[in-house]
Structures are given as C-alpha cells and as structure tokens.
Amino acid sequence: MALAFLLLLGAFVLGACGSSGATSGETASTAAGGSAAGDVKTYTDANYGYSFDYPDGWEVQEGDSADVTAGGSAAGSVGVYDPDGAVADKTYIDLAQVSVYKLSVAIDSSMMPQIKTEVEAVLASLESQAADMKTVESLSQTTVGGMTGYKATYSFSKSGAPVTSTLYFLFSGSLEYQLTLQAADENWEAKKPAFATLVASFKPGASE
Predict the structure, then answer these.
(1) Model-level pTM greater than 0.85?
(2) Multiple choice CATH, 21-29+38-201, 3.40.50.10140, 3.40.1000.10, 3.30.565.10, 1.10.3210.10
(3) pLDDT attached to residue 74
(4) Which among 97, 67, 100, 98 is positioned nearest to 82, based on CA atoms?
C-alpha cells in the first residue's frame, strides 16, 4: 500500500481571490465569551462534504496551490490565507490548506503501524527535496474530527522567508485528508489560535 504524497510549501499568489463556487462560506460570529481566533466563517466542501472554521477576513482559494509535490495528485484541495499576513516574493505564506486523496484501500486501526511507516517515507522524500527543512516537532499520532492520523511540524524557508508548518495526515475509510498549517516564523505564535480553531472544528465528509 502506498499513501498519497503530501503537498507542501503552499503559497498563494498576490491577487488570488474568492472561490469557484464549491465553497459554502457562512459567517459564524463567536459565541459569548469570544474565541481565540475571533469571528470565523465555515467552509464546507461541495464534493467531499468536509468542513472547517477559518478566520473571518481570510480568503479562500480552491485547487492545487502547492509548490512541492511528491507523487499522487489530490482529488480536491482548498486553502485559506490571511491577506494581511506575511508576503514573500509576491505570495501569501500565512495559510492553511486541506487536500483530499482517494486511497486504494479503506484504512482501519489495525493498519496504523503500517500507515506510520508510509508517512515517515513521505516525509523523508519531502526532506530530500527541501534541504533546509528542520524538525520542530517529531511525527506523533493524533486524532482530528474523529479521524486517527499523524502530525509533524517543520521549519524551512519560503522564498527566503523563515516559515513554520504543521502537517497532518488523517484517514477516514478510503479517504486521506492532509492539512497544512503554515505561517512565517514572525507570525507563527499569532496564527496558532486560528489554526487551533480550524483543527478543532474540522469534520470529515462521509467515508468512502
């Protein structure tokens, strides 16, 4: 079994805007007491049914926006980015991206040790492409939206700007969700609440 490969080092070109119609963005004000991320909107994918909250004021961009790939193509991809965030070489780099891959088998808990081995191989491949990648948090098991998977955090440079990114590999039946949460180092701590809100609110679509 070979997993789909991660899309990494995402960046959105200045001037990118809006969606292609597959986005359902509904404004959802914070409950009494507020949220660490402030007011949020909800993105719901029209094709796969997954959803997540992101900061009101961030922009949505659908489709592949990654600069580095290592094999398999995503069946679907969406990113949200901060138009007031860091920019390097005319690209936004404070962002979150979700990519969906269709696997040839349905994943269950008994397969997680094998999944970990596959994820480690994926990360090794990416590290070979980006020589300046450094591990901030080693690969560890995690649960998001009822899905079991793995996450790791790396630092690297994007167009000369120091960047930190947390990568999630999550599994729901025969679907693999890959989440990339990325910000310039100078903004990483400030963006953490927004990223935490996105992860906490993430709900997968129906399993295939």
Answers:
(1) no
(2) 3.40.1000.10
(3) 67
(4) 97
